[in-house]
């Protein structure tokens, strides 16, 4: 027999899953206050301190091995794969009820922090050291690399790719690509030529090292080149060359770095 014992009413100051195994046979417990069988109680008294230390070392190693595997393996066997070193705040939602495809896996790598109010859909992956603010939406098919920080309130739509070492804020439309080492504080949106769906429209691509300023809009299937800079509030409707700074509405080049 099992009995759950969870929450504030159960006397928990830190919420966690907790249950008791209730003896079903007379004489299972030497005293009513112990939830142990007589055999187990006697066995525990026979364990030496050396054995306890060795068992603790073995347990630590097993947990470390498991954590290491979690950081590099996207398992199809379990739909929710979260590394043990992660911090998941109260109020985070994993999965969505209307997702009908077969792949419902969610993977979160080592040392991630996911704050309250965030919703992460099925078929998503976030790498190690993922730092997620409050009230973030991450939709199905999205892939987020290692060492990525996502500001509170960010909306990451379907099939978005974000590389390693990025800082991301704002709105990222379906299929947007943000390569590694990007700082993205604007919105990546579609032209919405089909008023009902943008799912199959070309999406913006932000190349490695680029910077997109606060409030900037990158519209349609344009490419922002490596190490380019998009000024705050700019509206980009055409490709931007590498190492180029653009500002204004519509955005126009200011200068080429090193020229």
Q: Can you give a write-up of this model?
A:
The chain is α/β, with parallel strands linked by helices. It has a domain at 77-253: Hexapeptide repeat proteins (UDP N-Acetylglucosamine Acyltransferase, domain 1, 3 Solenoid). The chain is 13% helix and 26% strand. The chain is built from 2 helices and 28 strands. The strands form 4 sheets. Strands 4-7-10-13-16-19-22-25-27-28 form a 10-stranded mixed β-sheet, with no helix packed on it. A hairpin with a 4-residue loop joins β27 (244-247) and β28 (252-256). The chain is elongated. It starts with a strand and ends with a strand. Mean pLDDT is 80; it is low at 68-78.
Provide the descriptors you would attach to this structure in a database record.
259 residues, UDP N-Acetylglucosamine Acyltransferase, domain 1, eight-stranded parallel β-sheet, 28 strands, 26% strand, elongated
Provide mean pLDDT, rounded. 80
Query: Count of helical segments?
Result: 2
CATH superfamily of the domain at 77-253: Hexapeptide repeat proteins
User: Which structural class do you get from the secondary structure elements?
Assistant: alpha/beta
Major beta sheet, strand line-up: 4-7-10-13-16-19-22-25-27-28
**Could you name the CATH class of the domain at 77-253?**
Mainly Beta
Q: Name the poorly predicted regions.
A: 68-78
What shape does the CA trace take? elongated
Distance between the termini: 76 Å
H-E string: EEHHEEEEEEEEEEEEEEEEEEEEEEEEEE
Q: Under the CATH scheme, which architecture of the domain at 77-253 would be assigned?
A: 3 Solenoid
Which fold name corresponds to the CATH topology of the domain at 77-253? Answer: UDP N-Acetylglucosamine Acyltransferase, domain 1
Strand content: 25-35%
Tally of DSSP β-strands = 28
- Rg: 25 Å
Helical residues, percent:
10-25%
Largest β sheet strand count, sense and barrel closure: 10 strands, mixed
């Amino acid at each position: 027999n099992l009995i759950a014992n969870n929450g504030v009413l159960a006397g928990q100051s830190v919420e966690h899953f907790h249950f008791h195994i209730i003896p079903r046979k007379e004489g299972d417990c030497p005293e009513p206050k112990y939830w142990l069988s007589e055999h187990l109680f006697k066995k525990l008294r026979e364990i030496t301190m050396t054995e306890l230390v060795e068992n603790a070392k073995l347990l630590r190693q097993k947990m470390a091995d498991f954590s290491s595997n979690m950081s590099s393996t996207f398992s199809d066997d379990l739909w929710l794969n979260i590394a043990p070193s992660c911090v998941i705040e109260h109020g985070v939602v994993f999965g969505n009820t209307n997702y009908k495809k077969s792949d419902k896996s969610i993977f979160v790598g080592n040392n991630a922090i996911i704050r309250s109010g965030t919703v992460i859909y099925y078929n998503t992956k976030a790498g190690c050291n993922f730092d997620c603010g409050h009230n973030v939406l991450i939709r199905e098919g999205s892939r987020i690399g290692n060492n990525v920080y996502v500001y509170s309130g960010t909306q990451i739509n379907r099939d978005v790719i974000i590389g390693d070492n990025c800082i991301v804020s704002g709105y990222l439309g379906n299929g947007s690509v943000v390569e590694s080492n990007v700082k993205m504080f604007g919105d990546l949106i579609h032209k919405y030529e089909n008023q009902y769906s943008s799912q199959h429209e070309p999406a913006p691509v932000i190349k490695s090292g680029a910077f997109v300023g606060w409030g900037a809009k990158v519209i349609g299937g344009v490419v922002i080149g490596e190490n380019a800079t998009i000024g705050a509030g700019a509206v980009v409707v055409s490709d931007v060359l590498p190492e180029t700074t653009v500002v204004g509405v519509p955005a126009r080049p200011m200068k080429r770095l090193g020229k």
